[in-house]
Design brief:
Blueprint: E1 5-8, H1 18-31, H2 40-46, H3 52-62, H4 64-69, H5 73-94, H6 103-112, E2 116-120, H7 125-136, H8 140-143, E3 146-148, H9 161-170, E4 177-181, H10 184-192, E5 196-200, E6 215-217, E7 229-232, H11 242-249
Parallel strand pairs: 1-2, 1-4, 2-3, 4-5, 5-6
Antiparallel strand pairs: 6-7
Helix pairs in contact: 1-5, 3-5, 5-7
């Protein structure tokens, strides 16, 4: 089976944006004169919930005093989320955010090989536009054949809907593609859609359960900057490329190899 497509998650996968999100949430709380504050530990726990609006709802439901004063919770959450998104995009651009190791290289290699690229994210399209314009100076629509975001799909990961829509958008079957994710919910969503997954962890997700992921690494790697493996097979590779992903979708592995491969130094 030849690899024909790659579907990318965005936040935490393409760039280390989760800390920027946390800061944007806290800036919004200040602006609305709320007593809420999300520490790194708080946000770590909240990331088990996909979607900013959904996190707001959880906090509002726990804040009985505030909840009693809000006449229209849905409208209030919408205002919070809009403000937070504006702060996030401003921070994203001003902090000169960079893509994670291996992302730009893999995007270029995949495009040169004629692979179809897609995005499946719980974030909004405006956030993706800001990230890609800031880091690559191009319109995401010129890079990705399909973009499925919170603007088009309301079901949040671990629901497989976002990946099912992405597969439909690039016109490929699940066994012809690989999903690149960073969270447990993202892994579950992609697996439920029939995709194999490569997980790139970071500080907020390194302790997640990634059962059934094909490969769990700290980043995609570069020829001079190898990844470290915590789960799966590296197929004698030190960075993720099209050849490695084709091995994964074809399950070209020696059954006698240990389940967890040794880290590459």
């Amino acid at each position: 089976m030849k690899l024909k497509g790659i579907i990318f998650d965005v936040d935490g996968t393409m760039a280390d944006t989760e800390e920027i999100h946390r800061q944007a949430f806290n800036q919004t709380f200040k602006e609305f004169d709320l007593s809420w504050y999300w520490s790194e530990s708080d946000y770590h726990k909240l990331l088990s919930i996909s979607g900013g609006k959904e996190r707001f709802k959880i906090c509002l439901n726990k804040d009985e005093e505030l909840k009693s004063r809000i006449q229209n919770p849905g409208h209030f959450i919408k205002e919070l989320h809009q403000c937070k998104s504006e702060h996030y995009r401003s921070m994203l651009a001003s902090e000169h955010t960079k893509l994670r190791p291996g992302i730009e290289r893999l995007l270029n290699e995949a495009k040169n090989d004629g692979l179809r690229l897609g995005v499946a994210t719980s974030s909004c399209l405006a956030n993706l536009n800001t990230l890609i314009n800031t880091t690559l100076n191009i319109d995401p629509k010129d890079l990705f054949k399909t973009i499925v975001s919170s603007d088009t799909v309301t079901d949040k990961k671990p629901s497989p809907v976002v990946y099912q829509c992405a597969l439909a958008g690039i016109g490929l079957d699940a066994d012809e593609c690989i999903a690149i994710e960073d969270t447990r919910n993202g892994n579950l969503a992609a697996l439920s859609a029939g995709l194999k997954t490569i997980i790139t962890t970071h500080a907020y997700t390194i302790d997640n359960d990634f059962t059934d992921a094909s490969l769990v690494i700290n980043h995609l790697g570069e020829p001079d900057y190898p990844f470290n493996i915590t789960q799966g097979y590296n197929y004698d590779k030190s960075y993720v490329d099209v050849d490695l992903m084709e091995n994964i979708i074809n399950d070209v592995s020696d059954n006698n190899l240990p389940k967890f491969a040794s880290n590459i130094n």
